[in-house]
Design brief:
This protein is of the alpha/beta class and 388 residues long. The chain has 13 helices and 15 strands. 40% of the residues lie in helices and 15% in strands. A hairpin with a 7-residue loop joins strand 11 and strand 12. The structure holds pyridoxal-5'-phosphate. Pyridoxal-5'-phosphate binds next to helix 3.
Length: 388
């Protein structure tokens, strides 16, 4: 039994999330939990060597990833499909530059992880949104609109978030198949960012895009890592899997020439420890997060002004504030000044995100309750002040 209730203190660890005083940060997506002991042990053992020179990837790095995806998700990754990357964002940024030209469209279904826009727009590409349709309860894909976006002759790449951040939505095999068919029809390559795939409500599983059929497999680049799942984002380690050999050659050369394809000496040992010894920890983590979601649901049900969307994946809550807030940025600023609670404004994610805030609940339950109480107080004060 792992104890996720421990009140960790990250304030003296140069944590981006905790780079603040007397505030409660619940915005950026990393967790306030200690990692699985096997990961710490792997770092200690490597550190004891006391020499930290250039490092290659041992076979165990490949086999730990291959076994995990085969055993849990039925995706048979071949060793030669895999390349190391110093993170999923560096990989995506490199791939965008290989697969598209300046001025091209990269299609994204919004609201979506905001850093995709950086990888696209910082390099003179255009983020073409296909907005997910919100019906008051949940979101779905507007396939006519998605086809319109993909059919544009300037659209050459789609970045799919599978499962989807910030909605915590797990795409079904049918949805993925339709996306795959449309992308193939219009000659659009797919990046499937699967970083959130292991963080899942107990009993639910995600479908890897490359496992859907041959069309999806051969037209895709899948980005995976242990980082989000096992709370080791600061170790900067990820993997890219490209089944098609011609596409693979292009992508691998890009990762290498952009200098984002080489591991540090802790990258492989921690990935191997996570994927070979971390499964029980992950099972218990997912149960804990699920209980946190239930706690949040029960709490927020008492606030008629807000609506919490149901989600199966990850630890990010997507909360509708559209009934009373004028803008998500204004509301988040107000909340932070008023209560010290620091959330991510939904406008960051585009689409209809301005009606929402994103709250990271991967923290001990006592901290979550503190956050929820601050949220309730802030909503009350905001409504008193602005009364939309
Ligand atoms: C969808 C998605 N992709 C990528 C990342 C970041 O990946 P990395 O830290 O490996 O660059 C995140 C972090 O929140 C994310 O949510």
């Amino acid at each position: 039994m792992y104890d996720f209730d421990i009140e960790t203190d990250r304030s003296k660890s140069d944590s981006v999330k905790w780079s603040t005083k007397n505030e409660l940060p619940m915005w950026i997506a990393d967790m306030d939990f200690k990692v699985a002991p096997a990961i710490t042990q792997a770092i200690i053992e490597r550190a004891r060597h006391e020499i930290f020179g250039y490092t290659y990837l041992p076979d165990s790095w490949y086999s730990s990833i291959i076994d995990w995806w085969d055993r849990r998700y039925g995706l048979k990754i071949q060793k030669e499909w895999l390349h190391f990357a110093t993170g999923i964002v560096p990989a995506i940024t490199s791939i965008v530059q290989r697969v598209t030209n300046v001025g091209d469209n990269v299609v994204v279904m919004t609201p979506v992880y905001d850093i995709f826009f950086h990888s696209i727009e910082n390099f003179g590409r255009h983020a073409l949104e296909s907005k997910l349709v919100y019906d008051g309860e949940s979101y779905k894909i507007d396939f006519d609109d998605l086809e319109r976006a993909l059919a544009d002759p300037l659209s050459t790449l789609m970045i799919l978030c599978n499962p989807h951040n910030p909605l915590g939505k797990v795409w079904t095999k049918d949805e993925l198949k339709r996306i795959g068919m449309l992308c193939k029809k219009y000659g659009v390559t797919v990046i499937s960012d699967e970083i959130h795939c292991n963080l899942m409500r107990p009993g639910k599983v995600y479908t890897p895009f490359a496992s859907v059929d041959e069309t999806c497999k051969l037209n895709s680049i899948t980005c995976i890592s242990a980082s989000k799942t096992f709370n080791i984002a600061g170790l900067q380690s990820a993997a890219v899997a490209v089944p098609d050999p011609i596409l693979r050659n292009k992508i691998f050369r890009g990762l290498e020439s952009d200098e984002v394809g080489e591991p540090n000496c802790f990258a492989a040992v921690t990935t191997v420890a996570a994927f070979t010894q971390g499964e029980q920890w992950l099972t218990e983590l997912n149960e804990y997060i699920d209980m946190n979601k239930k706690t949040a649901r029960d709490f927020l049900r008492k606030l008629p002004q807000v609506k919490l969307l149901d989600c199966d994946a990850s630890y990010l809550l997507w909360i509708n504030i559209g009934k009373f807030a004028r803008s998500s940025v204004g509301f988040c600023d107000f909340l932070r000044k008023d209560t010290g609670l620091w959330l991510a404004p939904g406008a960051n994610y585009r689409g209809n995100g301005d009606d929402f805030v994103r709250m990271n609940i991967a923290c001990p339950r006592s901290r979550l309750l503190d956050g929820l109480n601050r949220f309730a107080v802030g909503v009350g004060h905001y409504i008193e002040k602005f009364d939309k």
